[in-house]
Design goal:
It contains five helices and five strands. It is α+β, with helices and mostly antiparallel strands and 165 residues long. It has a single domain, classed as 3-Layer(aba) Sandwich (NADH Oxidase). It has a five-stranded mixed sheet with strand order 3-4-2-1-5, with helices on both faces. The chain starts with 5 loop residues before the first helix and ends with a strand. The relative contact order is 0.23. The mean pLDDT is 94.
């Protein structure tokens, strides 16, 4: 049983002694690419929202939703990317415990880069309240645990819900 295996416990629960030994930090520190100077036409925000959610799944995300952010926010939308996890990523700090974080960062990195290539601003660097935004858009928790990352964007989308952040 994995729970009784001391090596498994170490792999899941013990953070690396050197943060450079975990990819999460490297992905979070990346320099975002530039926004393509010509915007692609978005004929329907509803259709674009479906495409964005399909992209999240294509890149390996488990669930997605779109939040309209309050007026005056730097970006009008947040794309909520949820990843199912076997462990609570806030406490299971080892490589195995952070697998869902790594996958979610891969998803948001690629999603934000794709949006920038379409000529719209997108960032996955603003992570102030991802869990609260996910709950506000009605994204159900994934069992046993859910890790959430956001992509903030000005890509014209149809929101699942308005969110007061």
């Amino acid at each position: 049983m994995a729970d009784a295996d001391p090596y498994w416990d170490f792999y899941v629960n013990h953070a690396p002694s050197n943060p450079d030994n975990q990819i999460n930090n490297a992905i979070r520190a990346w320099n975002e690419g530039s926004v393509f100077p010509v915007k692609k036409d978005v004929h329907s925000p509803d259709v674009m929202s479906r495409h964005v959610k399909e992209l999240v799944r294509f890149f390996g995300g488990d669930a997605a939703a779109i939040a309209r952010l309050p007026e005056g926010h730097e970006y009008p939308f947040a794309i909520v990317c949820a990843q199912r996890s076997d462990y609570d990523t806030r406490t299971a700090l080892g490589h195995g415990g952070q697998a869902a974080v790594q996958q979610a960062l891969f998803v948001t990195f690629n999603l934000a880069a794709t949006i920038r290539e379409m000529g719209y601003r997108a960032t996955a660097k603003l992570q102030d309240n991802a869990d609260r935004v996910a709950a506000a858009v009605g994204l159900p928790p994934l069992k046993p645990f859910t890790h959430v990352e956001l992509v903030h964007t000005d890509l014209p989308l149809a929101a699942d819900a308005e969110v007061a952040v």
